[in-house]
Design brief:
rod-shaped, about 0% strand, single chain
Length: about 60
C-alpha cells in the first residue's frame, strides 16, 4: 500500500481510469457471453407476422 501513497494525483487518476476501463470491458464481455447463451434457447427467425389483405385472399382462392 506504500506504493499507492507515493503516486502523484495524475498517476492515481490514470490508475483509476485503467481500472474502470478494465472493469467495464470485463462486464461487457461477460454480458455478451451470457446473451449468447440466452439466444441459444430461443427460435431464431427474423420473419414478422403480416396481415393479409383482401387482394391476396382472393388471389389465393382463385
Amino acid at each position: 500500500m506504500d506504493l499507492l501513497q507515493n503516486l502523484t494525483d495524475d498517476q492515481t487518476a490514470l490508475l483509476g481510469c485503467f481500472a474502470a476501463l478494465t472493469a467495464s470491458g470485463l462486464l461487457m464481455s461477460l454480458s455478451y457471453y451470457i446473451g449468447q447463451l440466452n439466444q441459444a434457447d430461443k427460435l431464431k427467425t427474423h420473419r414478422l407476422p403480416q396481415r393479409q389483405t383482401d387482394e391476396t385472399r382472393t388471389n389465393k382462392a382463385a
